[in-house]
What does this fold into?
Amino acid sequence: MPSESAAEGWRAQKVISGARAPPRVGEGRGVGYDPVKLAEGLKGVVCRGLERKYYRFRGGRWYGGIATADCVGCNLRCVFCWGWQVRDNPAKAGFWCTPDEVAGKLAGIARRRGYTQVRISGNEPTLCREHLLAVLDRLEGSGLAFILETNGILIGHDPSYARDLSKYDFVHVRVSLKGASPEEFARLTGARPEAFELQLKALENLLDYGVSAHPAVMLSFSEPGSVERLKERLGEIDPKLVEEFEEEYVFLYPHVVKQLKKAGVWPRVAYSPDSIPQELI
Ligand code: SF4
It folds into this structure.
């Protein structure tokens, strides 16, 4: 664990550099759960027929302005997750929504605020597949672009998920890789390291089915060498994935700092919420 005074230092700084303390990525965390199995179990909690649990609908500045539905439930346990309070209480959190309600609320927020984009975020949107596809059915023809922000595990596990998404030409998928290597992935999520490959496989499946997609990679805890190796692997799948490689960094919201401190994880680079660079928004 970083000392209390060092941790206070994180909050005060806008950009955090590992130069002041060695990076310690999840030392001592247990590893090894299977996120595909975890997803199966969670479906019984957050999916009900065509309905899914959500906890919030909002507008926001990301992507230049986007309407957002925040869903409940995720099959990873990232130590830097800003939605961990909902993620860890899926049975108690949120309220049930039909696809009509979700599509209607997203379109309404977008219309009122002049946005052209909508998304499902918060936790993991792909958990309730039938619900997600039904929301997309209802948004088809609305003129809105849909950004699917996902950890990619389920799309990597089952290529038919990518096939189903390919029916919607207004969907773009942002696959958020949790670290730059299987080892980083395991330390950051607590999941078995092999599951990192499913994130890469998701990108491959999506491109195979002609779905617009790009990788966003959490680099706050990465060594430069692992980033270069990841880019080589992405380039082997498709050089476009290297060109469109998006860097992601931890934002130090107080409840995120609390989790990082608890896990003894020390980011090499991070941003305080009031100093997020424009290019990361
Ligand atoms: S994949 Fe996203 S929602 Fe799930 S634990 Fe990680 S950061 Fe949180």
Remarks:
- Confidence is low (pLDDT under 50) at residues 1-30.
- The pocket of iron/sulfur cluster is lined by residues 74, 76-78, 81, 83, 87, 123-124, 151 (CB under 6 Å).
